[in-house]
Design brief:
The chain is built from one helix and ten strands; from the N terminus they run ββββββββαββ. It has 174 residues and is mainly beta. The protein is globular and about 60 Å long.
């Protein structure tokens, strides 16, 4: 559900960027800006925006599925936040990203306009990078998640799920 809340926004203060919405999807990890943060404290300096990440962390020879959450947006979706174990004894975690334009699944999807901020340019057509996995202003239509877990006694359970991202194009309210 949380991956379906991912979004990008073209609202960036080029003179003093305090945050940049990003989506960094790799084969074994995913970090992104999303809606859906629940403010639980009165007068908290938070909004409904958040940064989330899902990845594997090895500890004591075993891999754990981790979830990282930060209540506010920042300049790097992979830094900051608090991590928690979602699932221990993970054998495999794999993400893939559906490119609707090419009608195929990709192993990596990077939507990170931070390079445009350093150049002082924000646009739609001219800022598309040459690297095909780098898609500055577009999110994948779907994300497929494959998770295999050691259930003990030599039993392995595998789950596969796909989630749609309805806001593929960036928010631009100008």
């Amino acid at each position: 559900r949380e991956i379906s809340m991912a979004y990008l926004s073209k609202h960036i203060n080029l003179l003093d960027p305090a945050y940049i919405t990003q989506f960094r999807g790799k084969k074994e990890s995913i970090y992104f800006s999303a809606f859906g943060n629940v403010v639980r404290q009165k007068d908290a300096k938070e909004s409904d925006e958040q940064v989330l990440g899902f990845y594997l962390l090895e500890k004591d020879g075993k891999k754990n599925l981790m979830r990282k959450h930060q209540a506010n947006l920042n300049l790097d979706v992979e830094s900051g936040g608090r991590a928690q174990i979602l699932c221990p004894d993970v054998l495999k975690l794999e993400f893939s990203y559906f490119d609707e334009q090419l009608n195929k699944w990709e192993e990596e999807w990077i939507s990170d306009p931070s390079s445009l901020v350093s150049q002082g340019t924000i646009g739609y057509q001219d800022d598309q990078p040459k690297n095909p996995t780098q898609k500055q202003w577009l999110l994948p239509s779907f994300v497929r998640i494959t998770l295999s877990v050691d259930m003990g006694d030599g039993l392995e359970t595998k789950w596969v799920s796909e989630t749609q991202i309805p806001l593929k194009d960036p928010l631009d309210l100008n």
